[in-house]
Amino acid sequence: MRHLDNSGKGRACPAPTATVWISRRDALRRGLFGAGSLLRARATARPAKAKSVIQIWMWGGPAHVDTLDPKPATGYDYCGPFTKPIPTNVTGIEINELLPLLARQADKYSIIRSMTHGVYAHETASYMVQTGRRPGERLLYPCAGAVVSLLRGYNAGYSGLIPPYIVLTQPQGRFSENGFLEERYRPFATGGDPAQARFAVEGVVAQGVSDQRQKDRRELLHNLNTLEKALTHDPSMQALDETERQAYELILGDAGKVFDLSQETDEMRDRYGRNTFGQSCLVARRLVERGVPYITINYEGWDTHRQNFQVMRQKLPQMDKGMATLLQDLSARGLLSSTILWWGGEFGRTPKVMWEAPWNGGRNHWGDVFCALVAGGGFKGGHVVGASDAKGESVRDRPVYPCDLIGSIYELLGFDADGKLPNSQGLDVRLTPTVADGIKMGGRLKEIM
After folding, report:
1. How far apart are alpha carbons 353 and 308 in whole angstroms?
2. Which terminus, N or C, of the chain has the lesser number of Cβ atoms within 10 Å?
3. From the CB of residue 21, how many other CB atoms can be counted at a distance below 10 Å?
4. CATH assignment of 2-7+41-205+265-448?
5. pLDDT-derived band of residue 24, with 50, 70 and 90 as boundaries?
6. Amino acid 225: pLDDT
7. DSSP string of 329-380?
8. pLDDT over 60 at 346, yes or no
9. Per-residue model confidence (pLDDT) at position 224
10. pLDDT score at 226
């Protein structure tokens, strides 16, 4: 393994409802089929290496020192019981001892150990990490998923019935939304739980309602709809009828089957883990296979102010199994080379443990330095970018700011990260900040691109 600095040079490292109500139709029509008043996006800088992005959003902020940047030499007050990080299949890279499956996949991903923005509040930090912008500016900017939905979605030839920006399973709040872009670029949050016997996707699959019952309801609706029969040639009725047809195709046709995990073998589902996160990773793979450009897995539960280590012992094995299998599965299916996997949260957590009550071994927010992981879609595997200091309290080498990471992702998707962002208001804004915006930046991740 070689650490990489900003010049790209390596330096050696030591080894170590299902009834479709009219409001739902309107929502589907706006999200899936609405007429585009936005400018057609033509933000191509170079041939794209990536077609899709899977973002694993670690809501709450994972402890960098308890995941991908272990510090065993700092002592119990800092690393707690995690004193034995394990080597990966890349010489020199070590990660937390509860991540053995990911350790075997390190050749497929790179770790950024010098993410920074200096913000300690969930909302503002989330906004920065997901948009690359500072809060409080004149405009509310769209997050990366909404930008990809614009530049890779229906404006750019995407024709699937599945919306181009999916969140599994719960919304992330306004920071997963569209900013100044139109409502159609807001993500479709599935709701439900893919670990249940039937994944009840909002507006697509209803728990306890069979496909036959859906068909019967539709037939009854048509039999009662005398107005539609009387206005067969009315353009507005024809448009509504087409919307309904496509909505029911999503519910009863082949498109919606992407959410049906009963089509997967028990062995495959077991490999991912029979929990919400593991099965969300499996759904994400299926969505990538269908050509969906942007999928976010909103992985909650990482705001570990209290009893951090108890939470880590529960969640890290789930994360390990789901993520490692996703990497392996994408690679085996020939999808990893065209799919970016982006793991990370809004910040890290305090390197020094708060042992006193009421925290009882908790970690607070920490925005000075934290980790991210990237894989696939043109990102090289088996590298570490940047470094934190000996205690994981600050950046020691090669600071990476959110706009650097987002801009790198845009480049691999074939976007001109420095180009204008098309928008309905005709504003002169860029995909990523410029020097004139006064936002700190360390440069794109050319070391691993």
Report:
1. 9
2. C
3. 10
4. 3.40.720.10
5. very low
6. 57
7. HHHHTT-GGGEEEEEE-S-EE-SS-B-STTTSSB--EE-SSEEEEEEBTTBP
8. yes
9. 52
10. 58
Q: Give the separation between CA 201 and CA 256, rounded to whole angstroms.
A: 9
Cβ(263)–Cβ(178) below 8 Å: no
Mean pLDDT of 270-296: 98
Lowest-pLDDT choice from 34-43, 123-132, 437-446: 34-43
User: What are 105's two structure tokens?
Assistant: 């996949």
Using the structure block, give the residue that is written with the tokens 């499956």.
101
- The span from the CA of 418 to the CA of 403, in Å, is 11
The HSE-up count of residue 397 (CA atoms within 13 Å, CB side) is 15
pTM of the model: 0.84
Q: Where do the structural domains in the chain lie, given as residue ranges? A: 2-7+41-205+265-448, 209-259
Distances 309 to 240, 306, 363, 444 between C-alpha atoms, Å: 53, 9, 9, 34
- Strands in 2-4's sheet, in edge-to-edge order, are 10-12, 2-4, 383-385, 109-115, 370-375, 339-344, 52-58, 294-299, 165-168, 188-189
Strand partners, 82: none
Give the SS3 label for residue 114. strand
Quick one: residue 31, left, alpha or beta (phi over 0 = left, psi -120 to 50 = alpha)? alpha
Residue with tokens 């990489």: 4
Burial of 397 (0-12, 13-18, 19+ CB in 10 A): middle
